[in-house]
Amino acid sequence: MTQNLKTLIQILSDGEFHSGERLGKRLLLTRSAIWKLIKQLADWDLEIESVTNKGYCIPDGLTLLETAKISGFIKKAQQNQVKQIELFDSLPSTNDYLLNLKSATAIPEVSKQNRACFAEKQTQGKSRRGRAWVSPFAKNIYLSLLWHFEKDPSELSGLSLAIAIATVETLQAFGITKNLGIKWPNDVLCKNHKLAGILIELSGEANDVCSAVIGVGLNVNMPNSALYDRNISQPWTDLQRVTDQKIDRNKLAGMLLNNLIATASLFQKQGLMAFFPQWQKLDLTFNKSVTIITNTTKLQGIGRGINEYGYFLLEIKPGVIKQFASGEVSLRLS
Questions:
Q1: Beta bridge partner(s), residue 196
Q2: Smallest Cα–Cα separation from 240: which of 257, 223, 215?
Q3: How far is the C-alpha of 192 from the C-alpha of 319, rounded, in Å?
Q4: Quick check: 37 and 7 in contact, CB under 8 A?
Q5: Measured in Å, how far apart are the chain's first and last C-alpha atoms?
Q6: How far is CA 319 from CA 275, 301, 316, in A?
Q7: d(CA 157, CA 276)
Q8: What pTM did the predictor assign?
Q9: What angle do CA 302, 194, 82 make, to 5 degrees?
């Protein structure tokens, strides 16, 4: 994004009308150049309203993320555990950025540092099972955390469940306390509509060290056009629909990163068992009729929680329980 375009977005982010003449004076550009910049905003998923004699505006405005504001909501203990927090206008994928950064870092001391990054937009956002994660500009939160665990990859099978719990607890601390839950393994739902998704990608190393890139996508204010996006395969919602209020994305982003860091640290020390009480409170499938779909099978039964590895437990007939390390659970029998 050019500096002129970024400045234009910052000016229009207040939701008020600004004339082409006024914008031209602010940016030291002609009105024709301003018009060309306005046309470019469509490439950034931004709706622009144009009214004769009034000018241009972004309806309802928007809040841009700022690293300094995000950091202000991260406690000192958590700040000390992360070397760097980066913010980008656009990335193909925040997870891919940190994965590539890790593999390209040859200095041992640097390669072991925990890092985090946010992007205002993802052009190739990823979800579980190879699905896309729709990532419009300046609407939601797209966050990835690179964390180095002194564990074998097999010991991290329940990490995504712990991260889902951290996401829900962040929302609760933010003031959203009703109708939240988790559908195994890590879909955060509100009234059975998806609110957040998690993607964790692991890379094993020598001597029982494993790096995890923890990606969280949280819907804050999805555009209505996303209702018709074929890349979205299930009912979804966002925080502004849930609360009917504008959301301070910087505050929420800072609180979320703070909790992810604290959760990764606790998981390193105590593993999944530290999170069992919270999981039992938030598990939407416990004692419910569900269907689980894997690459090889499709079974119906009753959800019976998880085991110590985070595997899903399905009672397929009285007293007969099968466990699943992966799969897609549906609360709708099909």
A1: 188, 218
A2: 223
A3: 28
A4: no
A5: 46
A6: 26, 11, 8
A7: 14
A8: 0.91
A9: 110
Q: Give the DSSP H/E element, type plus range, for residue 31.
A: helix 31-40
pLDDT tens digit string along 181-224?
Answer: 999 999 999 998 999 999 999 987 666 788 999 999 999 998 77
Query: Any bridge partners for residue 201, and if so which?
Result: 213
Identity of residue 167:
T
Question: Can you give the C-alpha Rg of the chain in angstroms?
Answer: 22
Q: If pLDDT is split at 50, 70 and 90, which confidence band does 174 have?
A: very high
Q: Match 């804050």 to its residue by tokens.
A: 220
Collapse the DSSP code of 8 into the 3-class scheme (helix H, G, I; strand E, B; otherwise coil) and give the result: helix
Q: Which residues contact 106 (CB under 8 A, 6 or more apart)?
A: none
Q: How far apart are CA 136 and CA 142, in angstroms?
A: 10
Would you call 150 helix, strand, or coil by DSSP?
coil
Give the contacts of 324 (CB within 8 A, at least 6 positions apart): 292, 294, 311, 312, 314
Distances (CA, A) of 148 to 81, 207, 299: 11, 12, 36
Which residues participate in catalysis according to the annotation? 128, 194, 332
**Would you state the structure tokens that stand for residue 99, as one six-digit string?**
């994965």
Contact 215, 143 (CB under 8 A): yes
Q: Supply the angle between the helices 249-270 and 159-174 in degrees, to the nearest 10.
A: 140
Q: What is the DSSP string of 55-78?
A: EEE-TT------HHHHHTTS-HHH
